[in-house]
Amino acid sequence: xxxxxxxxxxxxxxxxxxxxxxxxxxxxxxxxxxxxxxxxxxxxxxxxxxxxxxxxxxxxxxxxxxxxxxxxxxxxxxxxxxxxxxxxxxxxxxxxxxxxxxxxxxxxxxxxxxxxxxxxxxxxxxxxxxxxxxxxxxxxxxxxxxxxxxxxxxxxxxxxxxxxxxxxxxxxxxxxxxxxxxxxxxxxxxxxxxxxxxxxxxxxxxxxxxxxxxxxxxxxxxxxxxxxxxxxxxxxxxxxxxxxxxxxxxxxxxxxxxxxxxxxxxxxxxxxxxxxxxxxxxxxxxxxxxxxxxxxxxxxxxxxxxxxxxxxxxxxxxxxxxxxxxxxxxxxxxxxxxxxxxxxxxxxxxxxxxxxxxxxxxxxxxxxxxxxxxxxxxxxxxxxxxxxxxxxxxxxxxxxxxxxxxxxxxxxxxxxxxxxxxxxxxxxxxxxxxxxxxxxxxxxxxxxxxxxxxxx
Length: 456
What we know:
The protein is about 70% helix and about 5% strand.
């Protein structure tokens, strides 16, 4: 270990120890995210010191810090702190974070995860098991049960007093609304706290005018895309979650929605490159390599298909070496044009800007753009080929091939993801490999085929 690393480690330890002391004095102003970043840096530099600091951090603070850390770090936490402390940390987390934490631990140690669950009372244990049981793409998986609610026959003044008490004992945080229910627990609507305080405290919630209530809510079984759409379209800071009988069971906060959006964008980027996003989070090089190898294998098969096309015209290539020199230009231009169309189409589909009825319009737009670009660059490459090899007809061949390939790239760049979506397949997963095959095969076939017809 070099001197620079030793200095960094000592500085990080000093900062973290100071933050621990400040937290114990209840005067700590550092955000848990900042502490998590410091810990991750220390983990990278010296794992022994990292373990030592984790043991010193109070459970209440560590609960907030661990919630900000990557899943892989949560999975391995049992290697650094005792089971007793893990239980204490989990009990200090919000329900959604606790459920995620237990789920992550179960990936590495199923027995420990079960032991943590057993440490809770029956009510909390049942609640956590319910949250863990949701599929990753369901709203309930991101729901937290800590919220501020009131029955519609309760006085506003009594509810505000109760909220103060809940805040004092740390039962709730990040409260922006009071969610109102009837006697059966069915959700009626929500009112913002800034509006609630202007009403007379002797009034009951049922006396609040209906135009002051916000009625946005979502089913616990709804798809995450619906959650993101509602929060972003209506600028919501939190979204009430109801069960199948419209009973209020939790809420999804905006910070969770940001995580969903980030995870979705990351998954899409990985999938566009033929990479499994879950495998990439593993520290095992074998798992990462295996995941990538599958798509590389598929890509190899498609590359062989393009090579077969080239093989069909081997006599043509032998007759005119210039064709071999110009072939990569045709393939490259088609691939890039297709990728542009594919990226825009997949992203707009993910954002909900393209629905089924917009498919024809999208295809038409991309074909026209590709045709215009095809004609433009056909003229450019045609003149370059003519000047380079002094063969006018060679310029004509590559120009025609450029138009054909860019036109097909634009068409299939839009059609492939739209078709995959219709088949209930994630457009981001297989689109790139399929499109590369199309542009290579069409590009080589059109270029070499036209060369055979016109030049030989």
